[in-house]
Write a structure and sequence with these properties.
The structure holds two protein chains of two kinds.
Chain A (H helix, E strand, L loop, with lengths): L3 E4 L2 E4 L5 E7 L6 E7 L5 E8 L5 E2 L8 E7 L2 E6 L8 E11 L2 E8 L3 E5 L1
Parallel strand pairs in A: 2-11
Antiparallel strand pairs in A: 1-3, 3-8, 4-5, 4-9, 5-6, 7-8, 9-10, 9-11
Chain B lengths: L3 E4 L2 E5 L4 E7 L5 E7 L5 E7 L5 E4 L2 E6 L4 E6 L8 E8 L7 E3 L3 E6 L1
Classes of the chains: A mainly beta, B mainly beta.
Amino acid sequence: GAVVSQHPSWVICKSGTSVKIECRSLDFQATTMFWYRQFPKQSLMLMATSNEGSKATYEQGVEKDKFLINHASLTLSTLTVTSAHPEDSSFYICSATRLAGAVIQETQYFGPGTRLLVL
Amino acid sequence: ELKVEQNPLFLSMQEGKNYTIYCNYSTTSDRLYWYRQDPGKSLESLFVLLSNGAVKQEGRLMASLDTKARLSTLHITAAVHDLSATYFCAAAGGTSYGKLTFGQGTILTVHP
C-alpha cells in the first residue's frame, strides 16, 4: 500500500528556534499534501494545503509567516515552524493525495506524525 | 463552512455488545471517511464512503452513508478489547480532494 513518511518523528527544541518537518510519499506521486495539527485529546485541524510547484493555501487563523510550507517535488513537502513557542507544541500530521495516472484516488494517506515539544 | 459532529464523544462498552457511532455533517459532502487512532499514533484509514447508501464492512466494523440526511454511522458488532481506540469521521467538501474536516472523535473503551 501507499506509504507516507514523516521526519523527524519527534523533536524537542528551545523557544525561539525553527523546526523543519518533512513529509514524503514513498512510492507514489502526491500533487497535493495537507498539514494537520492535533493538540492533546483534540481532533485534527487542517492547517494548510500544500501544492507542488505553487504557494500553499492556509486555513483561516494559521499564520503563513510562522508555518512555512514548501512543496518542491511530487514526493516531498516540508513544514517549518519558525520561532517556535511552547504553544506550538503539538502533533503535526501530513497526508497525501495519490495521483494514479490521471486519476486522483480517494484514499488519503496519512503520515505517522511528528510530535513537537517546545521548551 | 463544513462542520462535522460526532456522538457520542465517549463510549464505554462491554465485550460482545453492539453499538453505533454517529457522524453528522453540515453541508453537502460526497466523501466521508472513517479513521482509527491509537494513543500516540497517527491515523489508520478504515473506510471511504463515496455515494448515498454506501455500506462497507471490515470485520466487526460497518460504516454507512446517507447523504440526504448528511449522516454516516459506524456500527460495532460484538466488540472486543482490540477495538479500543479513538474513532474519527471526516468529510471532504468541494473539489479539493484530501481537504478534510474532522469530527471531534469518539473515544471507545471496550471492557471485558
